[in-house]
Each structure stands twice: as structure tokens, then as C-alpha cells.
Amino acid sequence: MLAWQTSLVHQLEQLHLIQCSLLPGESFAFVLPPDDLAVWSSLLDAITDAGRFSLDDADDHSVITSLTEPPCQARFEICVVGVQTWFEVTLPRCNDADAPTSSSGPSWATSTSTRIAVSVKGQDVSRDAHERWYAEIRARVEEMDADAAEGQAFPVYELVTHLTTSLNQSQAPSPAPAPTASPPIPTPIPMSTSTTPVTQPPPYHALLTSHHLVSPTKRRNLFHLSTHLVLAGFAKIGYPGIIYAQGDREAVEAFVREVKGWQWLALRVRFVEPVPRSESESDGESTRWVEMTKIGEVLEWMRMRGREALVTNLGIGASSKEPGR
After folding, report:
1. What is the mean pLDDT of each run of 10 residues along the chain (325 residues)?
2. CA-to-CA distance for 76 and 159, rounded, in angstroms?
3. Domain boundary at 119, 150, 169, which?
4. Are residues 261 and 225 in contact, defined by beta-carbon separation less than 8 angstroms?
5. Helix 3-21 × helix 58-65 angle, to 10°
6. CA within 20 to 30 Å of 197's CA: 112, 232, 293, 294, which one?
7. Among 208, 172, 168, CA closest to 27
8. How many angstroms separate the CA atoms of 325 and 322, rounded?
């Protein structure tokens, strides 16, 4: 495999990680001319269909080695619903990694082999807001530059994760309504005699995986966060790290957003979705957080709740290749 093809594989791996880690309301989209869009979309689809990409597997990288020249620079947008600001990220062309990018925004090198350009876009974004965003981006890239000496493996993924977290945090709460001169007197609500039970919204659950989960600090943080948000679930420690949480929708989404913001190595959000509450679950289990050390324990925990397929379909505990979700 040629050097530029290896670089292309690394870029595609990171774009795949970004897609897998998006939360509800976050979006990723290429910003390219139609012909270039078709090329990059097909390359990324090949990665997604495989679920993983191995330089040691000829079948995996045949789509790359079949290319006779590098594709154009990848350019994509990262947006969050409800936020009027978004980011446009431009990656280097694989055979010219050290050349300036064509993006209109500032460009900083995160390592000798990677140069990423980020432009701040938006509707009615003031000059001060632009400067604040660029200052934050510059500070983050400087941190990544320092980390490069320790082997920064996924600079694009790490930077985009930071950007999406910042966009979510930038959403200002709705202003409280102005007080009236004389507050209205509340109208008494008559007691209902209906015996129809109130329909409760279904609980949500989320599954995340990481390269590993070993640090006592990380494990302690997960326990405290799950307790604070009143979530059930588990953390499978070791290699790989597996995290599963269940509870109210707002709590689960807050949990995923917080864990994602910790920017662990190769962290992937596999799903965040509603799930019917199992009738076999006891009240004690509904708010319990446990730790596991073996894949078999994970499968048994999920099997007892009728959810084993949620992990085996991802290739966890199965002999087949891990498919994309």
C-alpha cells in the first residue's frame, strides 16, 4: 500500500468514528462538488459496511488500492440542531499533508503528518463570536500538538468531538418570562375519577465502546455520573471498554454527552434509543450500576433482559466481523 493510501485509510477511520459517535441532534455532512462527494461517500460507505478497517486484510483495503490517485481534500460540516453556528472542517489531501489547505479558515498543524483547517460558519455570527471560537479551536489544537509527542492517534476525531461538545454547551437556556404586575390566581384542577393509567414515556438506553477502560479515575467517574443521573447499567473494564446505561431519556442523553466530552481513545457511541422496560427487572436493578470484567458477563446481563442481540449484532461476543450500526 502506498503512503498516500495509508494516510487515506487513517482519515476514513476517523471519519467513521465521528459518524458513530454523533448524538441525537448532531450531524455530519460532506461539503463537496457532486463528483467528489460521490467518491468520498463511497469510500466511507465501504468502511461503514465493514464496521472496521484493517491494513492487514486485503479484502478490507482493496477499495483503497484500486484508486490510481488520491481523492480531493475532504471537507465536511459538523452541525447541532438549534445552534446557529456550525463548523466546516477541511482535511489535507493525502499526498500533500504538509501543504496549506484551501479552507478559508485558519489552519494549524496538529502533527507533522496532519494539518486540519476549521472554519466557523453561521447566521449572524458576530466578529467577537468568531474570535472566541477561533481562540478555543487554537487552544484545543495546541493541546493536541502537545499530545502528538505521546502518539496522538486520532487528531481529526478528537478535534471534532471537542467541537460538537462545545456547540452543545453553547446553547443558551431559554430566558424566563417577564413577571406580570399581578400573577394570575391558579385555577384548581379537579381530581380525576378516571381509572385509565397514565402512559409513561419509554426508558432510553445507550451503548458505548472504547479501546479500553482501565483507569480507576474513569471507572469512578462513570459510577458517580450514573448515580447522579439515576441510571442503571454497567461498565465492562479492560479491553475493550463497554458502557451501557438505561434510564429516562434526558438522563441517558446527558450521560452520553458527558462521557463523550471526556474524549477517551476511540470512544464510539453505538446507539441512543428507546427501549421497553423489561417486566422481569426488579426495582433494585432499575437504579443499579455494576462493573464487569468479562464479555461473557456482559452477554449474560443483556440476555437476562432480552437484549443480547444488541451487543452480538455489533460483533461483541460474536465470531463474525463487527458490522456498522
Report:
1. 82 86 84 90 77 49 75 91 89 62 43 69 86 89 71 77 84 49 51 58 90 81 86 89 93 92 84 72 60 89 88 71 41
2. 13
3. 169
4. no
5. 110
6. 232
7. 168
8. 9
Q: What are phi and psi of 81, to 5 degrees?
A: -60, 135
Cβ-Cβ contacts under 8 Å for 148 (sequence gap 6 or more): 110, 111, 155
Residue 145 included in any domain: yes
302: amino acid identity, one letter: M
Rounded to 10°, the helix 249-261/155-169 angle is 130
* Grid cell digits, residue 66: 484500486
Domain that includes residue 270, residue range: 204-312
| Domain contains 325 | no
Provide the pLDDT for residue 216. Answer: 76
The rounded distance, in Å, linking the Cα atoms of 223 and 221 is 5
How many domains is the chain partitioned into structurally?
Answer: 2
Count of beta carbons in the 10 Å neighbourhood of residue 193: 5
Before 203, cis peptide (omega within 30)?
no
- Rounded CA separation 233/236 (Å): 10
CB atoms under 10 Å from CB of 132, counted, come to 13
Phi-psi region at 315: left, alpha or beta (left = phi > 0; alpha = psi -120 to 50): left
Distance CA 157, CA 24 (A): 18
Supply the angle between the helices 34-50 and 3-21 in degrees, to the nearest 10. 80
Q: Looking at the structure, do residues 24 and 147 belong to the same domain, yes or no?
A: yes
The CATH code of the domain that includes 233 is: 3.30.70.100
Cell numbers standing for residue 70: 488520491
**All 3 cell numbers of residue 124?**
449572524
Burial label, 70 (beta-carbon count in 10 A; 0-12, 13-18, 19+)? middle
- Is residue 321 assigned to a domain? no
